[in-house]
Amino acid sequence: MGKGYKKSSSHPSFVPKRLSTACLMPRAGQPLSPCPDATIAQHNNSSSPEHSNKRHHAKCKEILQDLSGEQEYIQYEGVSFHDYIHIMDRSETIGDGMACKRLIFFPESQLLMVVPPTPANESVLNAIMESLSFVLFTIPVPRDTLACRTHANTAFRGRSVCFIPDLIIFMHSDNVSQRPLWMMECAFTQTDRDDMRKLRAYVRDNSELLVVGKIVLKQATPYCSPGSSGSTARELRSSELMTRAEWDRYCDNNEFTAVIVDSHTWFSLSSVEIHLWMRQPGNSELDIDRQEGDGYAFGTLHPTVNLTDIDKAFRHGLDLIKDAVVLELQKLADVEQATIRSMEDWTPPPCLLNPKVLAKALIYGARATAYQRYYDWHAKLKRTPYSATRHRTSRRT
Fold it and tell me: Is the Cβ–Cβ distance between 112 and 325 less than 8 Å?
């Protein structure tokens, strides 16, 4: 991590840098320390107009080549909306390398972020989504009239940001094709500054949002591949690829803070935080910059478990959804008053986050992420000499 490569001078200036995860999210209320590795790719757009099309294809080709390989977290500057659409259209031809990448694009600043999601990101969110889906299913309204559903990995394109949110609750009705009510993201390799930039942009593009949540998984130490030589992973380096079942036998059954196999740390976790922001009465939009008071809740899963305020915030968020559903029913034609009264009398069942369920999810996410890293490392060893890819910083095209 922290590596990048330079293109030759015959191409536009373009220097992507892997962002070091050593500068991940601070705890709530603490300032973000500057990250020395947080340099981003820059395109020189000063070329004459007749070269714009050639420059466009050169930029897009280079980004697509980068995305098809193995990387941590990259940013690219000077990416136009035309570039972004071209990259999205062409990415389907790359195969699995691109399929596992998340692209976050900011049209106004022409910034493109590339985030590789991991099972660690998805594990806790999946558990939360199950709890929310259970509650929403009890809404006493015919689902062909109005429905509130949880959605994962639904693409969004707005004025401020284009990306795929991790979790959204949409309200669907005859009047509203899909109104976002509740959005949550899980951050693992992004910096807090970049993650909040994405959330702010989504809030700007969706003024009717009721709840925004952020789960922060912070690594104890940034992950580093064991490479082709060294004092760790010696047995793994000389052995055939293990299956996932064989891998799990080397892991502690109840441990998610560290996955250490053959003396190498494949996954580590120092803390897990949950932040939740809720719309306040009379406010035109959510204020996701507040860190205290009404409209904000904070909880932890590790190293200590404290979900009291988060549980209260989830109940309040569900009450906000209830009010939104009642208002929408009142706008719809041919809705019986009995249906509206039934919704007004509805009390959301408890949506308490079960620490044991979430801990199990973290254990699964830690193991799966560790195995994913091991698998990629081992495949690279067998495919080509590792030293040939380690020195990618010197590549010229």
Answer: no
Average pLDDT over residues 287-302: 92
pLDDT value of residue 276: 97
Residues 115, 5, 62, 108, CA torsion sign: positive
> What is the distance of C-alpha 287 from the center of its chain?
20
Helix (H, G, I), strand (E, B) or coil at 355: helix
214 in Cβ contact with 128 (< 8 Å): no
* Exposed/middle/buried for residue 336 (C-beta within 10 Å: 0-12, 13-18, 19+): exposed
Q: Whole-model pTM?
A: 0.79
Task: Evaluate if residue 168 carries a pLDDT over 80.
Answer: yes
DSSP assignment string, 186-249: EESSS-HHHHHHHHHHHHHH-TT--EEEEEEEE-SS------SSSSSSHHHHTSPPPPHHHHHT
Pairing mode, if any, of strands 271-278 and 211-218? antiparallel
Q: Does residue 51 carry a pLDDT above 80? A: no
pLDDT of residue 379: 86
Amino acid at 48: S
Task: Give the span between the Cα atoms of 166 and 214, in whole angstroms.
Answer: 10
Question: What is d(CA 23, CA 215) in angstroms, rounded to the nearest whole number?
Answer: 16
